[in-house]
Amino acid sequence: MQYIPNILFLIILFLGVGFFIKNVKKLFRNINLGKDINRSDQKPLRWRNMAKIALGQYKMVKRPVSGILHVVVYLGFIIINIEVLEIIIDGLFGTHRVFSFLGSVYDFLIGSFEVLALLVIVAIVIFWMRRNVIRIKRFLNPEMKGWPKMDGNLILYFEIVLMTLFLMMNATDLQLQMMGATHYASEAGLVGAFPISQYIAPLFEGVSESTLVLIERAAWWMHIIGILIFLNYLYYSKHLHILLAFPNTWYAKLQPKGEFDNLDSVTKEVMLMMDPNADPFAAPAEEEEGEPEKFGASDVMDLNWVQLMNSYSCTECGRCTSECPANQTGKKLSPRKIMMDTRDRLEVVSKNIDANGEFVPDGKQLLDDHISKEELWACTTCNACTEACPIGIDPLSIIMDMRRYMVMEESAAPSDLNNAMTNIENNGAPWPFNQMDRANWIHEN
Amino acid sequence: MSEPLRVPTMAEYMAQGKQPEVLFWVGCSGSFDDRAKKITKAFARILNKANVDFAVLGAEESCTGDPAKRAGNEFLFQMQAVTNIEVLNGYEIKKIVTACPHCFNTLKNEYPSLGGTYEVVHHTQFLKSLLEDGRLTVEGGKFKGKRITFHDPCYLGRANNVYEAPRDLLRKLEVELVEMRKCKTNGLCCGAGGAQMFKEPEQGNKDVNIERTEQALEVKPDIIAAGCPFCNTMMTDGVKNKEKEDSIEVMDVAEMIAAAEEL
Fold it and tell me: Is B70 close to A413, i.e. CB distance below 8 A?
């Protein structure tokens, strides 16, 4: 009978981690629906970028208030997770504070976890106020209504509950240790340092040992179950960034921001057209069977896997959108919405694959059904969004790929642009001037 | 101003069996737009003054394809690129200078993988190197002490990390350089990039150039300095919209240097 909690813990841990792994596999599968792109060059630079931008939060602190608060929560969560390791071992083997043999190091660790937990709570409260009381503009854009808004708040509630449970657990544990309760008290004296929960512990003075054990156990169980639920919540939430920010910065574009890729499929055709020796009547080469390659992107499968990973990595902070010149002047375009739409469509495709074994066309696509042409045409390609993103997401590349589809597959450019392009084609300038007059300025006054 | 411009073409150089130090890529705006032509001429006058051995392609120059590419017409872009590369490679061009950040970005970044690799510099970078090499000297002159704010062109700044060359030139003019609250990496676009120059803006509550002009007016400049013909047009329109054209000028950095040197 005495092993029941241990077995129960093992089952919960197994289910929690198992379900998470299942979703991680799905995540990999969905990201791999994207086209191949080589982003494994210049590895030393990529590692440096990841260390600086993801690990070092270099871009987060460009906005100091949210940046520093974020660093607190980030450090808090990473460091406090060391404690989770102890919780798991204690849970599996029925031990009490198994790492306490570390002595003063252990005291230091637990003490700093407590301080961090309090700081995290403070930061989370401020974050919540920014969203719900101060109502910062970038959290109120149209795409932030409904689930995205709730998601943002749920994450904050989760974190505050987890931190509170952690402190509760320590406070009751401290009280039990001081009461000399069996299993809790150690012959060596007090185990752990409790700079924060020592102020909570007095609340439990006079509470019976059995009630205290009950509260301590409840806090302990809810804390670890909460963590497992949170872990599994990630896949359904914008909070995936805590994992994906790292590969996202590693695989980010390294070329100058102004350099857009040259489509190889187009190069092939252009070179053929420009080749004076090409036989215009030649039959297509044997190996080029199947459908001709689609130019640009109308759906998520036309994007590359880095773009799809970007969409899962986006935590909807809206820094891109708040810097976007189109969005600032009231246009429909919001780079954050481009990322959210891409992920939403990818999830629709994912469920379609789950249900049918493979993707069965559903008569819908990313273009028009999620992202409108009006949004795409409002972009000035200024790179404010890619500069603003704290983890190197590139909404602009998606906008460009979709413009390519609209222009090269649908011929659906605004008429003014069509005129400009016709001019470029006919007379080598976007305006209807004769190419022969290009040097006239030399002799004009 | 009295001296006529000396602007040879590559064809003329070729006929003489000579190779210039640098090709001046004028661009469509610089060739055809009345406002931008003034920038082109100012830059050419400085080149003449510094005795830079340069040439233009003249009628052999064609659009780099930038607006086509940003509009999504990769096909037209590559056709333009391949044709231009054929001309440039035919003349064995090594170094290109241009006063248009869009041409600059395209030639520098997007031509190499299509077979056209050149050393490409923006005219502000080129002018800075002329100063550093002592081939050109400028003094504050008429701009000394004036309040100047520099509007970063997206395709020079964020796109290619060139922020200091134009500012260094302005400092040489001994101006009072003031920065807008949105500048350098955080600079706000003028609204013309991504082929927006050639279409009507989408429905919104303001035009981008008005927003940017308002940011510029906040710092109460005498002159808004630009480094791009499109930005120049957009900011000029913005200043006119605010009815400030009598007190605030929009000038290219090259025009300011030419004016300071009374060229």
Answer: no
B129's CB contacts (< 8 A; 6+ apart) are: B121
Identify the closest residue of chain A to B39 by CA–CA distance.
A441
Beta strands in A28-130 (DSSP E): none
Residues 6+ apart with CB under 8 A from A360: A352
**Chain B contact probe: residue of A41, A441, A443, A445 with most B CBs at under 10 A:** A441
Residues of chain A with pLDDT below 50 are: none
Residues B133-166 pLDDT 10s: 999 998 878 899 999 999 999 999 999 999 999 9
- Residue ranges per structural domain of chain A: 4-31+63-240, 264-277+293-433
Domains of chain B: 10-131 (3.40.50), 138-260 (3.40.50.2300)
Asked if B199's CB is within 8 angstroms of A329's CB, the reply is no
What top-level class would CATH report for the domain A264-277+293-433? Answer: mainly alpha
User: Closest-CA residue in chain A for B24?
Assistant: A439
Contacts of B57 in chain A (CB under 8 A): 438
Which residues are A367's β-sheet partners? A371
Q: Tokens standing for A375? A: 């949004």
B71–A403 C-beta distance less than 8 A = yes
Instruction: Write the pLDDT tens digit of every residue in A254-298.
Output: 999 999 999 998 998 898 888 777 776 766 655 555 667 899 999
pLDDT of residue A278: 73
